[in-house]
Design brief:
Blueprint lengths: L8 H13 L13 H10 L7 E6 H7 L1 H9 L1 H22 L12 E6 L8 E2 L15 E2 L18 E2 L6 E2 L1
Helix pairs in contact: 1-5, 3-4, 4-5
Length: 171
């Protein structure tokens, strides 16, 4: 297990930038487009307020830098914002240097979407009932088919009332 505090945040951002700018294919199985090509496609899109996902193949990240990928899977709440920062940094450079920069516009919401995690027991869960409280805050994968959906039900854990006469509030 790696210590995520041993590396400065700026070093994480630089490592993710190198990964994005390397010639690794994007997230989908069989996809030939590199992360840079996919980023260029996003920058050419017209909608500037939409949220865009840059699919990142976790196996490619593991091959590129095992320590970086391992820390990302162990501490995603700390490391994913740094990955998103690296994407924005590379996007700004692409806007300045690309031949198609006249057709591109900056996008505020480009996020990494992790796909194809390693097939290990700690990451891949066979079903929903195998998810435990120890998995909170970790990256996990559950495969399955959605067979029924319904409306979201509000779970009330606390209710506040107020008196019509004196306006006193109580729970």
């Amino acid at each position: 297990m790696y210590d995520h505090t041993a590396i400065l945040p700026v070093e994480y951002v630089e490592a993710f930038e190198r990964f994005i700018e390397s010639d690794v294919p994007g997230g989908k199985l069989g996809a030939r487009a590199s992360l840079l090509q996919r980023l260029d496609e996003i920058l050419v899109e017209l909608d500037d307020v939409r949220h865009y996902a840059l699919e990142v193949n976790m196996l490619s990240l593991l091959e590129f830098n095992q320590q970086l990928a391992s820390i990302l899977m162990q501490k995603p709440n700390h490391i994913m914002p740094l990955f998103a920062e690296a994407i924005q940094s590379v996007a700004r450079r692409r806007l300045a240097q690309s031949e198609d920069r006249m057709m591109m516009s900056p996008k505020k919401y480009i996020h990494p979407r992790l796909v194809r995690p390693p097939l290990c027991e700690s990451v891949c869960k066979p079903n929903v009932s195998s998810i435990r409280s120890s998995d909170v805050g970790l990256i996990i994968q559950v495969r399955g088919t959605v067979i029924r959906t319904g409306q979201i039900k509000m779970l009330e854990s606390e209710r506040e009332y107020s008196c019509d006469k004196c306006a006193h509030r109580f729970k």
